[in-house]
Amino acid sequence: MERWKFSSKVFGLGVLLYFSPKSVFFKFATRWFPDPKAPDDIMEPLANWRANFQVKYGSGLPYTSSGSDVVNDARLPSKLNVDLRLNKRIPLPGTVSMDFFIDVYNLFDRKNVDWIGGSYSYLVTGEYSVIRLREDTGELVRNPQTLNEERQFRFGLAVQF
Fold first, then answer.
1. Domain containing residue 55
2. What would the 3-class secondary structure string for the chain be?
3. Of 11-25, 40-54, 93-107, which range is least confident?
């Protein structure tokens, strides 16, 4: 079973599936390391690099549609999000090491609906972000917060000692 331990020269894979009263979540994480049988001069540029993926799926949350006597009779669309972390470990003298990392949140820039502006407005227009119709101009008033965050990048440096 030694070959399944995470080290600098094996492949590791993790899957987590859990349920909550409102959603089903699926998380998938993987770490890739160089093949131990590959020549060292080929794999040297990839030494101490890690790539981690996290995939999160959530079934659509329930909501009560406009004019309904039944609570939570409709559901929002399901959510899918993928995050990525690239990490390069740089050994320093002694037991000290430094990690440079790049995080990419919402890797595919997917537009997930977090909530609806108004169930009546959604029923009339079919758009989640519409809150109401302005009576004086006839324009639709939208709330941009109905969708999740756009793709974001984060860079960092961590020192371990």
1. 2-112+150-160
2. CHHHCCCCCCCEEEEEEEECCCCEEEEEEEECCCCCCCCHHHHHHHCCEEEEEEEEEECCCEECCCCCCCCCCEECCCEEEEEEEEEEEEECCCCCEEEEEEEEECCCCCCCECCCCCHHHHHHHCCCCEEEECCCCCCEEECHHHECCCCEEEEEEEEEC
3. 11-25
